[in-house]
Amino acid sequence: MKLLEIQHRMLDAVMQPLTNDEQMQPRTRDGKSMHDVAAEFIKPNDRLSSFERLEIYNRQYWFRVLASLDEDFRGLRAIIGPRRFEALCKAYLIECPSESFTLRNLGSRLEWWLRSHPEHLQPRAGLALDMVRLEWAEIEAFDGAAEPVLVPGDVLASDPDPRFRLQPYLQLLSFHYAVDDLLVAIRKDDSDSEMASNAVSERGKRARLRKVARQKPQAIFLVVHRVDDSIYFKRIEPQAFKFLKALREGKSLSIAVTQAFEGQDIQDNKLLTTVQGWFENWSNLGWFCTPNSTDQDFIPASGRQS
Amino acid sequence: MPANPFNGFTDFGVGIGLRVPHYQHILAEKPVVSWFEIISENYMIDGGRPLRVLDQILDRYRVVQHGVSMYFGSPEPPNREHLKKLKTLVKRTQTPWLTDHLCWGSVDGTYSHDLLPMPYTFEAARHTAQKIREVRDFLEIPIAVENVSSYAEFHVSEMTEWEFLTEVVELADCGILLDVNNVYVSSRNHNFNPLDYVNGVPAERVAQIHIAGHSKFEKYILDTHDHPVIDPVWKLYSRAIERTGRTATLLEWDDKIPSFEEVHNEALKANQFVADMAVTS
User: Which of B68, B116, B164 to mutate to test the interface with A (most CBs of A within 10 A)?
Assistant: First the structure.
């Protein structure tokens, strides 16, 4: 048997889901005896059959990938419950096995996949999808690039209608539920239950279920950002969200302002004060960065040909 | 022969793996440590805390990169994006040599995130060696490959594991990261004498040695890196350095990680074996 054939056979077996009691399946996906398949390419020894030796790798694979998703999506797990979460993860990994060298990216397609498999999230699909988006945004914000910080005033001095570049690590999100507060509460519960007795932990789980059940729709606009390399959630007003989205899309300052306040009757001086306040606050947080020299999107608007 | 072409002609002594639970202690207390090994993949990112900590470590300590996902034995050619990220990190750390495993772990771009064992065939040796050469040519630094712990053997194997390792490193003209714990684990799982392995590898190519702990189960041993090093593994270490001379040595402790002092003290036990070797030679 050639190298490539061994590798195909072994990977197929290793990635096949375990049984409910965490053993290797007795049959392959196409109905062959797994004992026979294993024996064709793996030697037994005096303690383990070919099947049992292959099973060690099969179990290691599933334990590793499930643990990785469990660590990355604690909020989703809390919303739908640990059993349904595990079933969801297995179904996801069967259809979307890892295509990256790093486990960091294992959940990168989870939101996309869940949108076509809402049955895993009912009856709290909206809340659960919001949570998945927030948890993935956290991963992206944690190790996203940070560019040298820009002082907006310096740009405004040379260009009355500039384009501003946002830090690549910033994540702008709109939600239907207040998942930021919920995730913080879930993490606190997890942290408390690590230090508590079983009885207290059970009470904590029940309290968490009540928190999830109490969640009512509430539109929120959130920036996931970093300060001193720690992740923070910052809620912003809808207008501020539209403004930042427009800047991220490469729109000029004037267009971003227009889009942010579209349809609103607001006095010029109030508008100016509001936008100045945003810039002051966001500059202090280091959200603006210097444009890439090769980035055509960030040529000053006044220097562009329309 | 502490310094050789495969470890960039360095003489690094005894180090430990850089792990998250120890970040705070290392940055605050600045303990004297000969060198740290980092898992490359943890720092092949664009920004954030891991890179900030790494830069602070690099200001003070020597760092060597150890990878877990190059999969020299996998069928597909090296992933260019992966290589570019790795080279960026190599420039940042100035690692004198780079290590990864003699294994496979992906097929057609689907990743197992495991270190799967190679069939010990000449075909596999040629394929793996070619890939090691390609990676080394791109990264432009010495590469050493590590023997993995394994739980399965293949009918098609044409040689022992140490013969296969030798075949690969000679075809690729690369170094060896000799993991004596993995030798021990595999020897128990596959019923061979671990001393035959240590005596069988080309000593002049050993760039670095790994030591670690493992977990025993009823029918096999699992390489878990969550215990101190056991005496039989220290004996293999002693024999290995008898053959290779004082060699850069690294303790791996990846799960149930105890305090920094406990990990470092466990690693420093290696120095006694180096001293004993000096006395007897």
Answer: B116
